Automatic annotation (TrEMBL):
In muscle, parvalbumin is thought to be involved in relaxation after contraction. It binds two calcium ions. Ca(2+) 1 binds at residues 52, 54, 56, 58, 63. Belongs to the parvalbumin family. Ca(2+) 2 binds at residues 91, 93, 95, 97, 102. CDD domains: EFh_parvalbumin_beta. InterPro entries: EF-hand-dom_pair (IPR011992), EF_Hand_1_Ca_BS (IPR018247), EF_hand_dom (IPR002048), Parvalbumin (IPR008080). It comes from the Eukaryota. GO terms for cellular component: cytoplasm. Transmembrane segments: none annotated. This is Parvalbumin. The lineage of its organism: Eukaryota, Metazoa, Chordata, Craniata, Vertebrata.
Length: 110
């Protein structure tokens, strides 16, 4: 299963290009630009499963750093500040990781 099974390659390219510069990544803007906010709960869950690389049922800090590379192999890593900001926006229960419900809420708020 690949991200492009659910999201248009053109939307992914737009989103990646919009955050090429370091510290320019905005989780909500990225999720909106790639079209995730228009997806149904089943599709969001499938995308979450792809992003959860270690299959722990959470997206942890190390996986967040690699977030853009899940969408485009040549994309940059998120900076420490961007990763921290992503966690602050997505981790509603403060456990230091983003679960499916938190990810879905972040997607729907974008």
């Amino acid at each position: 299963m690949a991200i492009t099974d659910f999201l248009a390659a053109s939307d992914i390219a737009l989103a990646i290009n919009a955050c090429k510069a370091k510290d320019s990544f905005s989780p909500k803007m990225f999720l909106k630009t790639v079209g995730l906010s228009k997806k149904n709960p089943t599709e969001i869950k499938r995308i979450f499963t792809i992003l959860d690389q270690d299959k722990s049922s959470f997206i942890e800090q190390d996986e967040l750093q690699l977030f853009l590379q899940n969408f485009s192999k040549g994309a940059r890593l998120l900076t420490v500040a961007e990763t921290r900001g992503f966690l602050l926006q997505g981790d509603s229960d403060g456990d230091g990781k983003i679960g499916l419900e938190e990810f879905s809420a972040l997607v729907k708020s974008s």
